[in-house]
Amino acid sequence: MTQLKNVVDPFGEVNVYPTGAGKVRVRATILMEPHKEGTQTGIALDGSGSMSEWYGVSSGGFISPIFGRPKPSNIVAPVAQKICAYLARKIDADNGTTVIYWATGPGGSQIQVIGDLTADQAEKFDFPPPKDFGTGTRLLPAVTYFLDRFADAPFGFYVFITDGELHDMDEVKSYSERIAQEIEAGKRRPVKLLLLGVGSGVNEKQLAELDDLDTGSVDLWDFKLAAELRQVEQIFAEVVDRNARVAPKAKVFDASGKLVRDFSDTGLCAVFEFEIDAKSPYFTLELPGYRVHQALSDSAVAPASEKIAGTAIASASTPAAAAAASSTTAGSSQPSTSAASTSTGTSTSTSTTPPASGKPGTAATKFTHDPKELNFDLVLEKDQVNFDLTPSDPKAPPKK
User: Fold this and answer.
1) What angle do CA 136, 156, 117 make, to 5 degrees?
2) Cβ(12)–Cβ(246) under 8 Å?
3) What fold is seen in the domain 2-30+243-307?
4) Would residue 193 be called left, alpha or beta, if left means φ above 0 and alpha means ψ between -120 and 50 degrees?
5) Domain boundaries, the chain
6) CA–CA separation, 141 vs 150, rounded Å?
C-alpha cells in the first residue's frame, strides 16, 4: 500500500493498493472535522536529546560572531501552539488540551506534565525545551499516560510530536495490538493516536511502520509530517465517519476520461473506493460544480482542480461525451428559444447553454421580459454575454 503525500482538497488521505491484472485499488477519504461528544485531547512533545535542535537549543561550537552562525529557532513551538489551540477550541469537550513532554530523563522513560491549556493559553505558551532532555526515546509511557487518565472518555485523540527515533517500538506495537483488540471487543473506548513528525531528520520509515501496524478493524495509529500539512484539519484524515454522505452525487474518471465509478444513485460517502487502470497517472472526482484531479503517485502530475459550469454531474459516460452530445441535465438539446405571450404583454424565454468541451451542461433557465426588448444580457461572474432575440433586427447590439 502507498499512502500519497501530495493530496489535494478536499481529500484528507489517498491510499493506493496494487491488485494485479493491471489495476490498482484506491481508497480515499474526504477531509472532515470530527465532532464526537465527550472527546478528550492531548498533545505530547518529544523531549529526547535528539530534539534539542528543534527546540532552538544550541549544540555549541564556534562562538565568534565573525562566522555568522545563526541562533537556532524553536520550530516545535509554532506547531504545538496551532495544534493545541485547535484541539482545545474545537474538539475537546472541556475546552482544554492536556500537554506533556515525553522521552525525558534517564533512558527517555519519563514524562513532564505541563497541564491542560485552553486555546488562548496555548497560543501564548512558548513551549520551551523540557527541563531534562531524555537519553532515549520511549513512546509507551506517553501513550499509557493518556489512555489511563482518560480511560472513561467516549473518544480520545492524542498527538505525539517527534523526530521519529523510537527506542521501544516492539513494546509500543504489542501494547497497540492489545488496545485495538479491547476496543474491538467493546472493553475500551475508541481512541486515535497521531504521530506528527517535525524537523529535517524525521525517521519516516519507522513512523510509517507504526502507522501501517495491522490491528484488525481498529486503525489505531496515523502518521503525518508537520511540513506537509496544508491545514490543521488534516490531522483528522483518518477520523471520519465512513458512512457520512458528503455529496448527493459524484463520478470518478481515469486520466483518459473513462468512467470508473458512478455514485449518482448512492451519493458520495466520506470514505470511498474504486479500481482504476494502474497506468492512469491521476483520477478525476467530479462533484456538483467542481472537478478535482488527484495524482496517483507522488511523482505523477495532475491538472489543477477546477470549477465547472452549473451544479450538476455530466449525464454522459465521460465529460467529453457530455460535450459531444450537446445535452443538458434538464434533458434539453435545443438552442436558446423564446415564446411570446401576447395576453400578458410579456415573453417567456428559455435559455439552454450547450456545454463547453469537457464540461457538463447547465440546466435551462426561464424568465419573463418585455416583448419590445430586442435583447437581454446574461451577467456571469466575470463576463457579460448579450443574447439577440431578433437576429435580423439591425438595432440589436452585437454579441460580445
Assistant:
1) 75
2) no
3) Immunoglobulin-like (2.60.40)
4) beta
5) 2-30+243-307, 39-60+73-236, 314-400
6) 14
Residue 171 φ then ψ, to 5°:
-65, -40
**pLDDT for the residue numbered 303:** 94
CB 318 within 8 A of CB 258: yes
DSSP H or E stretch at residue 15: strand 11-20
CB 376 within 8 A of CB 349: yes
Instruction: Considering the domain delimited by 39-60+73-236, tell me its CATH architecture.
Output: 3-Layer(aba) Sandwich (3.40)
Mean pLDDT in each 10-residue stretch from start to end of the chain (400 residues)?
87 89 91 84 96 82 53 88 94 96 96 97 96 96 97 96 91 96 94 92 89 88 88 78 84 96 92 94 94 94 86 38 34 36 43 40 48 50 46 45
Nearest to 312 by CA among 362, 252, 381: 362
Contact 54, 75 (CB under 8 A): yes
Place of cell 555568522: 68
pTM, two decimal places: 0.64
Residue pointed to by grid coordinates 523540557: 130
Burial class of residue 60 in the structure, from the number of CB atoms within 10 Å of its CB (0-12 exposed, 13-18 middle, 19+ buried): exposed
The SS3 assignment for 99 reads strand
What integer pLDDT is reported at residue 149 of this predicted model?
96
Closest CA to 111 of 150, 138, 85, 83: 138
